[in-house]
C-alpha cells in the first residue's frame, strides 16, 4: 500500500502546530517525535522531522512528498514545489527595518545602503522591482543586531509582535511579504499518493471549517420564525423543532465566526431567547 511522506519542522515555531494539524486530522503518531522519522498509527503517512530550511529541497527531490514550511521559506528556497494549501498558523511578515532615528520616507532611501538579511532571494527581487540598488549582506542569524554593530544600515527579517525590532532600536519601514505556514507538495506524486493527499486535505478543510463556525441553538416564538430564519444562514437552512410549550420553537443553525456577534444581536432584537452557542469539532460541507 502507498504511504505519503510528509516533512515537518523538527523543532521551532512550526513544530507544535504542524503536529496539532495532524492530530486534528485524526492522524496519530505512533511513537516519539524526537526521532528523524515516525509513522502514523492509523493513516498511510510517514512523518519526517527536519530543519525547515531543508524541507523544500527534500520535497523537490521526492524524499518527502509534501511538507509544512513558512511561505517565506518556500519563496526564499525557490524549489520546484507547489503550494497545496494555506494552513493559517505561523503568521508573520518579512519586513525591512532601519534604526529608529533614521530619516525614512520612501524605499528610495535605501539606495546604496547595506541591508543584512537571511532572505537574500526575496529581498533582491523586491529591490529590483522597486529599482533600488543596495548591498545585500546574507547572514544566517541574529540579523537584528547588524545595524547596532555597524555591519549594516538596515535589516530585512521576519517580524511578528515587533518586540525584537523595538528592543534593538529599529523601526519597520516596508512590509515585503505576509507569510503563514503552507503545505507544499511535489508536483509528480503517484496516483495512489494523490488519493491519500486528497483525503488528508479533506480532513484539514473539515477542521478549518469547524474552527470558523459555531453551532447555535435558540428558542423563538412561532410568529417570529420567519424573521429569525432570514438572519440565520445555516448550512442549508435552519432546523426548526417544536418546543413542548405551545407557540414556541427551537431553531438550530451554523453561523460563521466573522458575522457572529452581529447575528446574535440581530437574533435577540427579533425575539430569540435562550441562545446557546456550541463549538463544532469537524464540519463536512
Ligand atoms: O531550526 P530550524 O531551521 O528548523 O528553524 P528556524 O530557527 O529557521 O525557524 P523558526 O522556528 O524560528 O521559524 C520557523 C517559521 O516560523 C519561519 O520560517 C516563519 O515562517 C514562522 N515565524 C512566525 C517566525 C516568526 N513568526 C518570528 N517571529 N519565524 C521567526 N520569527 C523570529 C524573527 O526572525 C525575529 O528574530 O522572531 C523574531 C521576531 O519576533 P517578534 O515577535 O519579536 O517580532
Ligand atoms: Zn530554519
Largest sheet: 6 strands, mixed
- Indicate the CATH topology of the largest domain: D-Maltodextrin-Binding Protein, domain 2
Average pLDDT, to the nearest integer?
95
User: What's the CATH C level of the largest domain?
Assistant: Alpha Beta
User: Any guess at the CATH architecture of the largest domain?
Assistant: 3-Layer(aba) Sandwich
Please trace the helix and strand order, writing H or E for each element.
EHEEHEHEEEHEEHEEHEHEEHE
Separate helix tally: 8
Gyration radius, to the nearest Å?
25 Å
Basic shape: flat
Q: How many beta strands in the DSSP annotation?
A: 15
Question: Any idea what the CATH superfamily of the largest domain is called?
Answer: Periplasmic binding protein-like II
What small molecules are bound in this structure?
phosphoribosyl ATP, zinc ion
Indicate the structural class: alpha/beta
Q: Which residue ranges are poorly predicted, with pLDDT under 50 across at least 5 consecutive positions? A: none
The helix content is 25-40%
**Largest beta sheet: what is the strand line-up?**
2-3-1-4-11-5
Q: List the domain count as a whole number.
A: 3
Task: Report how far apart the termini are.
Answer: 29 Å
Beta strand %: 25-35%
Amino acid at each position: 500500500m502507498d504511504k505519503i511522506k510528509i516533512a515537518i519542522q523538527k523543532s521551532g515555531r512550526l513544530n507544535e502546530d504542524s503536529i496539532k494539524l495532524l492530530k486534528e486530522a485524526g492522524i496519530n503518531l505512533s511513537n516519539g517525535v524526537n526521532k528523524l522519522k515516525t509513522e502514523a498509527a492509523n493513516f498511510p503517512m510517514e512523518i519526517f522531522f527536519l530543519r525547515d530550511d531543508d524541507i523544500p529541497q527534500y520535497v523537490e527531490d521526492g524524499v518527502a512528498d509534501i511538507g509544512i514550511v513558512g511561505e517565506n521559506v518556500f519563496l526564499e528556497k525557490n524549489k520546484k514545489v507547489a503550494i497545496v494549501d494555506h494552513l493559517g498558523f505561523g503568521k508573520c511578515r518579512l519586513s525591512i527595518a532601519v534604526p529608529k532615528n533614521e530619516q525614512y520616507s520612501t524605499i528610495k532611501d535605501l539606495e546604496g545602503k547595506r541591508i543584512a538579511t537571511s532572505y537574500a532571494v526575496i529581498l533582491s527581487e523586491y529591490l529590483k522591482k522597486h529599482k533600488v540598488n543596495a548591498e545585500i549582506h546574507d547572514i544566517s542569524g541574529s540579523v537584528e543586531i547588524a545595524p547596532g554593530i555597524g555591519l549594516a544600515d538596515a535589516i530585512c527579517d521576519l517580524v511578528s509582535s515587533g518586540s525584537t525590532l523595538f528592543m534593538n532600536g529599529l523601526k519597520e519601514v516596508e512590509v515585503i511579504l505576509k507569510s503563514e505556514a503552507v503545505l507544499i507538495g511535489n508536483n509528480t506524486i503517484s496516483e495512489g499518493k494523490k488519493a491519500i493527499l486528497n483525503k488528508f486535505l479533506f480532513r484539514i478543510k473539515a477542521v478549518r471549517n469547524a474552527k470558523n463556525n459555531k453551532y447555535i441553538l435558540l428558542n423563538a416564538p412561532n410568529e417570529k420564525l420567519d424573521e429569525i430564519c432570514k438572519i440565520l444562514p445555516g448550512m442549508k437552512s435552519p432546523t426548526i423543532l417544536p418546543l413542548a410549550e405551545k407557540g414556541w420553537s427551537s431553531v438550530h443553525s451554523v453561523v460563521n465566526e466573522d458575522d457572529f456577534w452581529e447575528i446574535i444581536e440581530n437574533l435577540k432584537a427579533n425575539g430569540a431567547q435562550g441562545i446557546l452557542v456550541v463549538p463544532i469539532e469537524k464540519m463536512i460541507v
